[in-house]
Hints:
Elements (H helix, E strand, L loop, with lengths): L2 H13 L2 H8 L3 H15 L4 E4 L2 E4 L1 H28 L3 E8 L1 H6 L1 H11 L2 E8 L2 H9 L5 E5 L9 E15 L9 E2 L1 H4 L4 E4 L4 H13 L6 E5 L2 H9 L4 E5 H9 L4 E5 L6 E9 L6 H13 L1
Helix pairs in contact: 1-2, 1-3, 1-4, 2-3, 6-12
InterPro entries: LysR_HTH_N, LysR_subst-bd, WH-like_DNA-bd_sf, WH_DNA-bd_sf
Keywords: DNA-binding, Transcription, Transcription regulation
Family: Belongs to the LysR transcriptional regulatory family.
Amino acid sequence: MNxxxxxxxxxxxxxxxxxxxxELLCISQPAVSSQIKRFEHEIGVQLFKQxxxxxxxxxxxxxxxxxxxxxxxxxxxxKSFVEDYRLAKAGDLHIVATYLPANFLIPKWAAAFKxxxxxxxxxxxxxxxxxxxxQLIHYKxxxxxxxxxxxxxxxEIWWEEIYEDELWFVVSPHHRYAHQTITLIEMFQxxxxxxxxxxxxxxHLFSLCQTYQVEPPKIALQFNGINETIRSVIAGYGANFISxxxxxxxxxxxxxxxxxxxxxxxxxxxxxxxxxxxxKQNLLVQNFIETIKRSL
Length: 296
């Protein structure tokens, strides 16, 4: 079927006049008449009949006009859908993140983004560093948000550091070092509760040992999850070196206590936005990154 002919027919039917339809479409009235006749010939059914000095729809013409109205509405919806996607008002955005940004930063960023982009389908996956980068590199994610060191980043990605999170030594509020200022050597006499080998917090801890040339502490308990680590310290055993993002509420509520270490520089945990290198970012990705930057 000639879709252009159907559209011309619809405009004649809704305006009730070949002349008015021609004016609306900015073409000549004879051109409209000629194309309507061609359309009638194509479908093999008469659409208009003469009445006085004008024309009216046949019964089939009335039925087709109703169908054409649905078609025109659908066409407009499709145009709006394409335009919304082009202008980043709709579509899918896949974000993969490591634990700290996924739990303590992204919820706020996602809420701000959705408030301005309600029709965007935002999908967020929490995983480890290795899997986050693999998903990004293999086009299973559009953005990776990652907390960790430069050495862990593959050469295939571009990153921008957006947030610095200070790492704290924390103990139970009943611990003898709670709220105290001590030396690093004294701190490392305590048993530590840490994440598994390869975790960024554990790497930061051992890097601190190398920087200040002290013996590393004994890792007395090891967990795969950060919440289990925190709960064990709250329960009264050992110490932890951990992101302030993860424990700030516990410290402020008195469930954990900080230990201040003399003569060392604050240790920072950097959080970065990562995308594929040498690839033009689509508007959804650009808008989400801008939302993050506005919120910082």
